[in-house]
Amino acid sequence: MNKALNLLGLARKGGNIQLGEENCGIACRSGKARLLILTKDAGDSVRHRAEFFVRSGKPPLLRVEYTKDELGTAVGRNVCPIAAITDVRLALAFLNAMDPDPTHFSDIRATLDRGAKRVEKRRQEEKAHERNVRFGKK
Known about the structure:
Blueprint: H1 2-14, E1 17-19, H2 21-29, E2 35-38, H3 44-57, E3 61-63, H4 68-75, E4 82-85, H5 88-98, H6 106-135
Parallel strand pairs: 2-3
Antiparallel strand pairs: 1-4, 2-4
Helix pairs in contact: 1-4, 1-5, 2-3, 5-6
């Protein structure tokens, strides 16, 4: 489980995570959130807002077994009941670090896997385009 929390710390340093209700709401509504994380001891109002964010922006919601304090410590805050990962490959890595069993969270895993494949395909196309621009199309 510590590996998953370390990934959240890396996501914060890389700018690939939004923390708190307001920022998570903005990320979900704009379509940038790839995975919404909610702690086990989050309040009812935070849980209701997270469910609303999921309906409005369509990122998967993952209830984790961490407390607000544990999640907050991992991302450099005192407490953090809700977070949104905005990078699909990092979200998939977080889910795999949380539970490596492919049968658990299979629907969330499938959604993130499709997104990761799309990102990889786009990067390959962009790399091929840059190569064509630089050297001419062969």
